[in-house]
Every structure is written in C-alpha cells, then in structure tokens.
Design a protein that fits this description.
Blueprint: H1 2-7, H2 28-35, E1 41-45, E2 51-55, E3 66-67, E4 75-81, E5 86-91, E6 98-109, E7 117-123, E8 131-138, E9 141-151, E10 158-162, E11 168-174
Parallel strand pairs: 1-5
Antiparallel strand pairs: 1-2, 3-4, 4-5, 6-9, 6-11, 7-8, 7-10, 8-9, 10-11
Length: 175
C-alpha cells in the first residue's frame, strides 16, 4: 500500500505504530491495570487440561501472544475462558492454534452489492499474509472458509477482504 501511495504522491504516516496511541508513554499494561479489576487465575494447557502457571488477568492477553510459563513451551494464547478466568494456551504447532473457518458479524462492503459466495483474499491480523478464503452467506451470517488453516484468529478482531489486485472489498468482525 505504501508503494502505491508513493507512486501516486499520496501522504501517509511513514512511521507505523503497533501500540495504543492515546495512552501516555504507550504503557498499555499500566493503563489497563488502573482501569480494570483483574484477578489472577490459572493458565491451562489446552491439550492436557493441566494448570501450568498463573496469569494476572485474562484481559491483559491477546490471542496468539506468547505466554512466559515454564515447561516444554513456548506457549501461546489460544483462547480465554472468561467465566472461569482461565487463560488457555497451546504450543505453536498445536491444531487448536489454527482455524479453518470463522463466523463474522458487522460485515461491510465497499461496493453496494455483497456477494452471496465468492473467493477472496483475507487478512485476520496486522501484517499477516493474505490467505485465500471462500466467503458465504448463510441465514444473514457470513462465514469464511480458508483454503489452509489460519493461526492467531481472535474474536473481536477484524477480517479484511481484498481481491486479487489487492483492492479493498470490505471487512467484518470475527466472532
């Protein structure tokens, strides 16, 4: 995208940020700790169901984040059980780390007519390579079916759709 902007002499921010922009000194953990009532809970290895550590609050972790616990790791966040205050972790190549399909809500299309079914390119995380998927509409709910399993898919994040020319088609929120 930057290459296209340069070719067309369009302005954009040269420096990218992966942190939160409105927090003083970009101290996201400190900002959240002051505003959330987090409590410690168990870190559970999803494959075995065993407790392998303790977290300081599930709110401070994101899907795909590496979790510093001992054992045969490294471990990564695969899911969070908010009702039980559990952080569910897997090793990098665990099958629970990958998703073959996802449901979407709040889907928006750049064009006025959304497809009922189409092959598109999708990105579900910042800087993740585009992956091929089929998007389908079932009973007013969109589904993405990936050609290959995708890792780090997190509810609440966006799935963004492109065509083969890298033109933005639309997007939706992963549920």
């Amino acid at each position: 995208m930057k290459k296209i902007a340069d070719q067309r002499h369009l302005p954009y921010l040269k420096k990218e940020s992966q942190e939160i922009c409105f927090v003083h000194d970009a101290d996201l953990a400190g900002f959240l700790k002051k505003r959330l009532h987090a409590k410690k809970g168990p870190i559970i290895e999803l494959k075995t169901g065993k407790k392998i550590g303790e977290h300081n609050g599930v709110q401070f972790y994101t899907i795909g984040q590496r979790v510093p616990v001992g054992g045969t790791g490294p471990y990564y966040v695969a899911d969070k059980n908010l009702n039980k205050n559990q952080l569910l972790v897997v090793q990098k190549n665990d099958k629970n780390f990958f998703r073959k399909e996802i449901k979407l809500k709040n889907v928006n299309w750049i064009s006025s007519k959304p497809p009922k079914s189409a092959k598109i390119l999708v990105r579900t995380r910042y800087r993740q390579p585009l992956v091929v998927a089929k998007i389908t509409l079932h009973a007013s709910r969109y589904m993405l079916h990936f050609n290959q399993p995708v890792k780090f898919v997190a509810p609440g994040q966006s799935a963004v759709f492109y065509n083969k020319e890298s033109e933005l088609l639309g997007g939706g929120v992963i549920i």
